[in-house]
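Field log, afternoon session.

UNIT: design team B
ACTIVITY: writing a sequence onto a fixed backbone
BACKBONE:
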């Protein structure tokens, strides 16, 4: 499609879709909503172009927010916007990338589709006067910077500029393994006010078109419209989503326990659920590391990252993993990830970057969701 300019009425359906595709992460849609409304009402323009419309020699970068939800919660939207008017971490990181390569960035592409991390890239693009690519690095959300389609298609994560909340800026220029930049970034953010913004995966238009998950943002917008329409017309919003995407009903049940544990050197959350409706009498175990990573139903594995385990409440809203609590009723809908992301995950670098050991399941081996649910 030609360049699309977002309108105020797009905000709600976009955030509905982003929250569902986010698989529990990507930041709060409440913050995404506040940022988008504030920007649009102040006259900033959110422009989006499809990947195929990008020039082959364009300079494209990805990026997003790193840090703690708790740091954001200490600020009001007015405080955040005022701070960004003076020093916007993502803009500092973008300028550092431009300085490193001595050329202007032409487009930005979100790291992931999530309720905060997609809107902040629009906020960055609007302040830079450039468009956002209608796509992202995952078609979902993921807990670590190296977990993208880009990395398995020959695009380097580094150089990775990162600017933290208190004023520090660094550039990770090179790493010998895929996980080092993320580890450095998290150390810096932890010691730099709990929040930061990074730029990464510098690429050409040619590279973008071979690696990006295409049109994932417009897909989120369309999903949101389907779910909202079902909710408003007395339909079943969960089924509306499942049907629209051709998804798999993996489980429905009530959360019985939510327990954090250290496993394999990582902190993860284990959610156990008791089945309801068609799954009455069954049990599910869900592994979460910010996002849903793996699911067992009656001790049989049913889905493994990077395939999507979308977690929906009864009204069809995607739930954030931090909001999962005992007594919540969740509908788990499975989707195969995009073929480009799957190819990346199965590449040599992807096995290191994506492997189940990254979320404390070193004995688990990826199998496509279609195979696990024949």
């Amino acid at each position: 499609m030609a360049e699309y300019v977002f309108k105020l009425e797009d905000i709600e359906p976009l955030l509905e879709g982003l929250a569902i595709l986010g698989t529990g992460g990507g930041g709060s849609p409440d913050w995404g909503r506040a940022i988008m409304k504030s920007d649009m009402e102040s006259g900033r323009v959110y422009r989006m172009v499809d990947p195929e419309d990008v020039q082959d020699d364009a300079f494209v970068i990805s990026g997003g927010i790193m840090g703690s939800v708790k740091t954001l919660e200490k600020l009001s939207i007015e405080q955040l916007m005022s701070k960004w008017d003076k020093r916007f971490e993502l803009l500092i990181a973008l300028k550092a990338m431009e300085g490193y390569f001595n050329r202007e960035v032409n487009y930005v592409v979100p790291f992931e589709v999530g309720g905060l991390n997609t809107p902040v890239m629009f906020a960055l693009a609007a302040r830079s006067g450039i468009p956002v690519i209608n796509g992202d690095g995952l078609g979902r959300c993921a807990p670590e910077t190296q977990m993208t389609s880009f990395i398995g298609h020959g695009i380097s994560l580094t150089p990775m500029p990162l600017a933290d909340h208190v004023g520090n800026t660094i550039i990770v220029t090179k790493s010998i393994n895929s996980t080092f930049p993320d580890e450095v970034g998290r150390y810096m953010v932890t010691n730099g006010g709990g929040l930061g913004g990074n730029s990464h995966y510098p690429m050409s238009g040619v590279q973008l078109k071979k690696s990006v998950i295409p049109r994932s943002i417009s897909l989120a917008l369309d999903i949101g419209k389907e779910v909202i329409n079902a909710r408003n017309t007395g339909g079943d919003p969960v089924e509306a989503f499942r049907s629209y995407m051709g998804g798999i009903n993996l489980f429905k049940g009530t959360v019985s326990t939510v327990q954090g544990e250290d496993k394999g050197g990582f902190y993860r959350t284990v959610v156990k659920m008791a089945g309801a409706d068609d799954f009455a009498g069954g049990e599910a175990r869900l592994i979460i590391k910010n996002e849903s990573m793996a699911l067992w139903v009656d001790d049989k594995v049913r889905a493994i990252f990077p395939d999507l385990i979308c977690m929906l409440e009864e009204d069809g809203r995607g739930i954030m993993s931090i909001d999962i609590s005992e007594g919540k009723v969740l509908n788990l809908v499975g989707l195969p990830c995009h073929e480009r992301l799957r190819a990346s995950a199965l590449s040599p670098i992807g096995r290191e970057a994506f492997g189940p050991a990254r979320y404390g399941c070193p004995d688990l081996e990826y199998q496509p969701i279609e195979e696990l649910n024949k």
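LOG NOTE: The first strand starts at residue 4 and ends at 5.
NEXT ACTIVITY: expression trials, pending approval
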